[in-house]
Amino acid sequence: MDLQPDDQELHRWPTLSEALEEIKAIGKISGPTTITGLLLYSRAMISMLFLGYLGELELAGGSLSIGFANITGYSVISGLAMGMEPICGQAYGAKQWKLLGLTLQRTVLLLLSTSIPISFMWLNMKRILLWCGQDQEISSVAHTFILFSIPDLFFLSLLHPLRIYLRTQNVTLPLTYCSAISVLLHVPINFLLVVHFKMGIAGVAIAMVWTNLNLFLLLSSFVYFSSVYKDSWVCPSMDCLRGWSSLLALAIPTCISVCLEWWWYEFMIMLCGLLANPKATISSMGILIQTTSLVYVFPSALSLGVSTRVGNELGANRPAKARISMIVSLVCAVALGLAAMLFTTLMRHQWGRFFTTDTEILDLTAIALPIAGLCELGNCPQTTGCGVLRGSARPTIGANINLGSFYLVGMPVAILMGFVAKMGFAGLWLGLLAAQASCALLMLYVLCNTDWMVQVERARELTRTCTMSSTPLPISSTISESNTKKSNNKANLEEVLCVSDEPVKSISLETDPLISTTTS
């Protein structure tokens, strides 16, 4: 059992050996996750290449459909799935194995339930696009693409929770291997459907769905044959339908936070359409968003790594190590931001040539790329900070920060600089810079004022281990039975999640200054 750290231990900087040890621990998770992210990015590029092969109309329709799917579906599924991350991370640190399996099952049910109304929305996509004033021909092509993408919602509802389930147990390399195999198969699948069978844009959509299905089947096979599931396996039962309050309390604000950031970039594209020469500005914005998506792979992987580390350490009652994880990851994030800024500045005249030869688009891209690099100087620390907040089960703070930074600061600045100050395309990116800067500053303020002893107390409320290791998980305990067991120090994480959330809520109100009392 870990001894409680003294006050000095929680306020000192880590030694060089501690920092190197933590870098190694984070790198063990973030390294394979980065490779996986790059592989999945290349898969998206392959799909875009095949859309371009089909023609300008198919490329426009497919791009519009993917943007619509991101806003209304993929961002929601991804955000809700991340709600299970702090529960699984802290459960793994506290050796509450069975809760891992239960949380996996509950999250799958949550995502499958969410996919149903999203599917109905996608079925009516053409009507929605026409109501928004989109071109009839492009809307028809986009509608065809998204109809064949509907099964992807259900496969992602299985895939996202499975990936988080493995990552919170520090199992990341198998995901990289499985992603590599699925991406390698993605090219021949596209060739078979698009070129050989001449299925057109429907073939590209089916290929994307097929690739996600392959990835899920490969990961499921690994989980089964490696027996990684045995300690956490819980037979599906009605217990999956209980204890949803804590999962939803984490999933909903995480989803809001993810959606707010994803939607901002779609909003930027809409604003580009209002500028002079919208074709050039929209094309340049597309190039820059693809570039920032590529750069984002690295801070995103770091964020996922530190989220797992912080959750594991808090669950294991080691607040000092959780704090070291935060410090080391933020230093790494600043280094990533500086590297991104240097890259975009040096490559501002060459990078756009990989995508186009149009002089006007190249000029706009060269002007905005250094600003995009400055944005990454704020984006990398704030993305990493979001990982720390997720690992310590405080996603509502992240949602509040994103709302305030992107929509109360960034949006007005973008409109002011782009249209009122007549700075045009560069002015829109200055709005994003203002959003990222304010987001990073608020995130750093919250993290620097975190009381790690209080955070470990919050985690302990979820991770009180039973006095007897053989005690079965009391999933069906009544409220009175739960209170009795807690008084005898036999409560565990599942009791707290299923029966009573009040201890966790009361502590979160004391330590989360940006949480509104209505959402906590």
UniProtKB/TrEMBL annotation:
Species name: Quercus suber (Cork oak)
Membrane association type: Multi-pass membrane protein
Source domain of life: Eukaryota
A Pfam short name: MatE
InterPro entries reported in the protein's UniProt record: MATE_euk, MATE_fam
Name this polypeptide is given: Protein DETOXIFICATION
Coarse class of the protein's main subcellular location: membrane
GO biological process: xenobiotic detoxification by transmembrane export across the plasma membrane
Spans traversing the lipid bilayer: 66-84, 104-123, 144-162, 174-194, 201-224, 244-264, 285-304, 324-346, 399-420, 426-448
Keyword Membrane: yes
